[in-house]
Amino acid sequence: MHSWHEDLLNLLVTPVTSPQAIFADIERAAYKLGFEHVAYGFQAPYPVTQPTVTTINNYPTDWQAHYHRSGYMHTDPAVLHGRRSTQPLLWTRQTFADNPALWQDAQDHGIRTGWGQSSIEANGSGSLLCVCRSHELVTPRELQAKEQQMRWLVQVAHISLSRALVAAQSACASTLTARERETLQWTADGKSAQDIADILTLSKSAVDFHIANSLKKLNTPNKTAAVAKAVQLGWLR
Question: pTM score, two decimals?
């Protein structure tokens, strides 16, 4: 019988599996801590102005639909806090004082109390893990007893799920050729198409061709976005 920590540690050392399989393990760990619902959100570093956000949760389907329909992700105090701070946040009525409608709606849908913490990377990516339940509020004594485990759960979720989500995105994208990677690498170093042509002894039109193919494969609008996405996918050194 593995301990609680050993089960989570396995997520860090085993080969990447599907995000759904990893989430199931995170869900079981949260349940052992007394929380029936788990929500995880991963924000990619691209596009820069409107980063892609991927969410996985086991909330009741009616609450998921209502939350999305109401646009609460853009006004949720827990989400807003997680985007600017990695300090944990306990959900209380006071926490949601600026958005009482969301608090009341959550209560009505059986989400009575929760706790969340984010992880933010230097490249702009980040994630937020929230655990919540429909019964009694989290007391200071319970929080003190479980906070270390919950913080550990946040870190494991961030490392394992972000890795799996990036791998899934990479698998969906067409692989770049060696020459396409090379031209993007020089682009990342600030070189112009003509500079790259001179360095690689190619024509400028050939460089433009490779860059255009890279943009198409990465589904990005320009070279800057292509470089950012290629780096996130681990395709550039």
Answer: 0.76
DSSP sequence for 63-128: HHHHHHHTTGGGT-HHHHHHHH--S-EE--TTTTTT-HHHHHHHHHTT--EEEEEEEE-TTS-EEE
Q: Is residue 78 part of a domain?
A: yes
The answer to whether residue 75 is domain-embedded is yes
- Tell me the residue type at 82: G
Chain segment 71-87, per-residue pLDDT in tens: 999 999 999 999 999 99
Q: Is residue 57 part of a domain?
A: yes
Nearest to 36 by CA among 63, 15, 13, 1: 63
What is the pLDDT of the chain when averaged over all its residues? 88
Query: What torsion, rounded to 10 degrees, do the Cα atoms 115, 36, 73, 12 define?
Result: 80
